[in-house]
Every structure is written in C-alpha cells, then in structure tokens.
Amino acid sequence: MKDNAAVTDTPRLLVFSSLFPHQGRPNAGLFIRERMFRVGQQLPIVVVAPVPWFPLQGILRKFRPHFRPPAPRFEVQDGVEVYYPRFLCVPGLFKTFDGFFMAIGSFMRVRKLRQRFGFNLIDAHFAYPDGYAATLLGRWFKAPVTITLRGTEVPHAKTARRSFLVKALRSSARVFSVADSLKQFVVSLGIDAEHVLVVGNGVDTKKFYALNKRDTRETLNIPDNVPVLISVGGLVERKGFHRVIECLPALVGQFPGLLYLVIGGASAEGDWGDRLKQQVKQLGLEKTVRFLGAMPPEQLKTPLSSADVFVLATSNEGWANVFLEAMACALPVVTTRVGGNAEAVANSTVGLLVPFGDSTALEAALAEALSQHWDREAIVNYANNNTWDKRISLLVNEYYAILNKSPDRRRDAHRPDAGAQ
Question: What is the pLDDT of residues 193-225, one digit of tens each?
Fold first, then answer.
C-alpha cells in the first residue's frame, strides 16, 4: 500500500483501543483515556475504538440488558475525535480471530484518518486483540506500532491466542508496560526485555483529593463514629467484591456499625451486581453493605473521603489507578499480591498486601488496617508524588525516539517514587 503521509519529526498518534468510554459505557477504559488524553495535550491524537458487533446482538440485549451497550459511530471528547468502527465478534465463537476481524473492521476508518489526519504512529492498548490488530494495520499503512500491556495478557497467554499475542509484541516498534510484573511475564514468553519499557499510571490530584470526612459522611448519611471500608471497580468476579463481603460477618463483630461502600456497575467483563446483592442478603449484611452504583471520576472523592480503608481483593491487575486515587484521598489500601499491586502499594506506610485466595489473611489485614493509626498526610504525599507528569513526559520522548529511530532508551518509570522506603 502506498504511504500517503510523510513521516515528520512530530508524532501524530492514532490511539487504538477497543476499551474506551462512550455514551453507552461512560466508565469503560477511563484509565486509557486519562493517560492518552494527557499525551494529547502535547501531541496530536485521534482515537479509534473498535466495537464488537454481530447481526443478532440486539435480540440478545433484550435478555441481557447490559450486553454490549449501543455505541455511537463518532464522538468528540475534550476536543479529541473518537471513532467507533464495528467489527464482527460472535459471543463465545472465533475469539482467536478477534484481532483479524478488528483490523478488517477498522480498515476503512483508519484509511480515511491516514488521508485526513496523517497519523504516523499507532498506539495500541492490550496486546490482544487490539495490539495484534494494530500491528496488521501498521503493516498495511506502513506506520510503527506501540503496544501497552495492561494485564489481560496473562489470561490470554493461557489460550490459543498466545501465538498472536507474542507475534504482535515482536512486530511492534515498542512495548510499554504499566507494571514491571507484566514486563517480566512477557519476557518469560520470549520477548526481549530491552524491547519493553515500564511506564506506570499516575493520579490526577485535581480530581482526587481528601475532603472533610465529617462533611462527606453527612452527605452520604454515614454516622461519624463508624468504621468504613470502600471498594471501587466493575462489579465482576475478578475485582473480588465477594471476597471482601465474605469477611464482613467476622469484622462486624470486631467493629460494630462497620459499613462497606461498593462503588461500581456492569463492565465489559460482565455484571455481578445481582449476585453480590444476593450474597449480602444471604449473610444478613443489608445494614452493612451499601451499593452506591457507578460514579464518574470527578464524584469519587466524596465517598473515598468518607471512608477509612480502601480494599480491592482482585485476582489479576496490570496497574490499578484506583489505588493512587484512594491514596490521594488519604486512604490506606488493602489488596492482593497479584500483578502490579505490589508496585503501586510499594510499602507498608501506604497499605497492606495479602496472598490472593487467602480469606483469613484478607480478614486479618482489614482488621489491622481498621485498627492501625495511619499517617494519612504521608499517604497523600505518596500519591502527590506520583502524578501523571513524569509518565507522560517519558511517553512523549519515546514516541519521538521511535519516529527518529533513536537508540536512546530511557529508564523504567514504573515504581511510585513517593518516598518509598
């Protein structure tokens, strides 16, 4: 294919990710938008967010209302153009070929953007199917491709998609990883360690900061003198809300009046909302657990500031932005030692780590966190020293280096540097 856009010294990015917010899924992929829109403040960007589709999904949605919420074809978000081309994706079938279908479905839109926007670099998120699709598009349009690892690579590598995932990573111009644990994982798959640069996520301290606890509790009708746990995330099995709930009967006995605030809703991974509510009912915890639904990021500081401890008993994570967001609101974090969690919760002054699947250890850690006197100012400082500025600067420099074929490789920036001891 003829190259229609001359490569210049200034990167013009086509951001490629099937997980991106839109009016039907306003909370999907916010962590990608947060990162790349900040890049967009320094470089021209356009977003292509492929949407899975098959002919009968409208009928299926009548029985499963949250299944693939309708997406627009186009939106402008904060001045950035976002396109949502469709690609064939039949639930449960042909998942190994999602990357190919995603590339085919996006081809015409990408072609038009090549002609009009003149992108010279494709920046994809998740190695499969998005990264694989992006490398096909990069080959067809003669543009280098970067891929950001975000955690799904671990389960995908256990399936028939592994070969496509590895091929995509090897075909890319650069691989970014949000956590060192993910970097080490793909290195174990045969990817050159020098090809992978760790660039962790940051926190927006203009959106996340501690409010007066008494005021926020009054807003949420929470008594001043009760201990409060909080979790934020999609209501899916992986996030582990049910693992926290099963610890609550014992904790209520130790901490009278204990409340657990659950913030989140259905996500691309599914919807465990009804199942969690049934679990609460079976355990007689209706007065202990409050489901507050999904909230936009700018509203989260109110419930976060009303709580005492943040908890996420997750089974797999790349880098959970919500940890630093909770810390910016002065909350210590209790979480599982999986994925990049130990890199975000880097020392015992900001939180506690427990083995995944150990309910006894989780219960003990929550009891300890609720009893312990935390230096909350130090926790806030930890978050404040991990804003987006350093991460975005590193990314922008790498994009320039790729286009200019520079051998310069900069040091990893994955570890929070907020005074980790």
Answer: 999 999 988 899 999 999 999 999 999 999 999
**H-type alpha helices, 239-371:** 241-245, 248-254, 273-282, 301-306, 321-328, 341-344, 359-371
Q: How far is CA 392 from the centre of its chain?
A: 16
Residue linked to tokens 């992986």: 238
Describe the chain by its helix, strand, coil percentages, rounded to 5. Answer: 40, 20, 40
Q: At 360, is the secondary structure helix, strand, or coil?
A: helix
Q: Are residues 308 and 232 in the same domain?
A: yes
Same domain, 19 and 155: yes
Please write the tens of the pLDDT for every residue from 243-275. Answer: 999 999 999 999 999 999 999 988 877 889 999
Distance of CA 375 to the CA centre of its chain: 27
Distance CA 17, CA 33 (A): 10
CATH number at 59 reads 3.40.50.2000
Q: Total domain count for the chain?
A: 2
Q: Give dist(CA 120, CA 124) in Å, integer.
A: 13
- Domain enclosing residue 335, as ranges: 213-383
H or E element, residue 388: none
Looking at the fold, whether 129 and 222 belong to one and the same domain comes out as no
